[in-house]
Amino acid sequence: MRVLLAVILSCCATPATAQQLKPWSGGMTPTLALRDIDGKPHRLEDYRGKVVLVNFWATWCDPCRAEMPAMNKLRASLAGRPFAVLAVNLAESESRIRRFMEQVPLEFVVLLDRDSGAAKAWKARVLPVSFVLDAGGRIRYSALGEIDWAQDGVRKAILALMPREAIQPRAALSASSP
Q1: Is CB count within 10 Å lower at the N or C end of the chain?
Q2: Rounded to an integer, what distance in angstroms lies between the CA atom of residue 135 and that of residue 161?
Q3: Which pLDDT does position 107 carry in this prediction?
Q4: How much is the pTM?
Q5: Residues 3, 135: contact at Cβ < 8 Å?
Q6: Is 70 exceeded by the pLDDT of residue 61?
Q7: Beta-strand (E) ranges in the chain?
Q8: Contact, 68 vs 138, CB < 8 A?
């Protein structure tokens, strides 16, 4: 309960201005094994080979809600490439999350961190907080606070983490196929 209170207070203190991706120097990637809003299990290991955006959020957090449409745009702009978004909701009821998703359709996986265990493991003390993992599962960037995921610099940083064959122009890929 203390962690949840600290996150709530920190969320209120987060500046409203959009943040940037920062290179990660915080150590190893914690495990992540949660169920999605439909009950399907997801493990971070299942996403190896993809660049993954792990975002900790809550419906009551204004900056969290504000950045969701930009995450949808980023995911759409990288469609067909090895990229995934895992939005980890912090200890809210499924009904509350579903009501939010009716207002703001989310085109990515929403995971439920019912007991805040994942948030503790990832040291997610402020919302929103995001981590960008490379295709090998290592955290490469973090963002504390709201970020405009649709900005070109963010997209380029994510593309740079993808396996080389995933970022070649599609015409070049088909031309090189036997």
Answers
A1: C
A2: 7
A3: 95
A4: 0.84
A5: no
A6: yes
A7: 22-23, 33-36, 41-43, 51-57, 83-90, 109-113, 129-133, 139-144
A8: no
Name the token pair of 160: 């740079």
Residues 90 and 58: beta-carbon distance below 8 Å: yes
What pLDDT was estimated at residue 103?
95
Cα separation, 137 vs 119, in Å, equals: 18
Q: Among residues 113, 130, 100, which one has the least CA distance to residue 4?
A: 113
- Six-digit token string for 40: 């399907």
Is 12 a residue whose pLDDT tops 70? no
Spell out the residues 6+ positions from residue 28 whose beta carbon is closer than 8 angstroms to its own: none
pLDDT value at residue 110: 98
Closest CA to 87 of 125, 32, 45: 32
Angle (nearest 5°) at CA 26 between 21 and 27: 130
Distance between CA atoms of 128 and 131, rounded to whole angstroms?
Answer: 10
pLDDT score of 17: 43
Residue 82 corresponds to which tokens in the numbers above? 């090895």
Sequence letter at residue 174: S
Pairing assessment for the beta strands 83-90 and 109-113 based on DSSP bridges = parallel
Q: Residue 89: what residue type? A: N
Q: Taking Cα atoms as reference points, which of 55, 124, 129, 58 lies closest to residue 87? A: 55
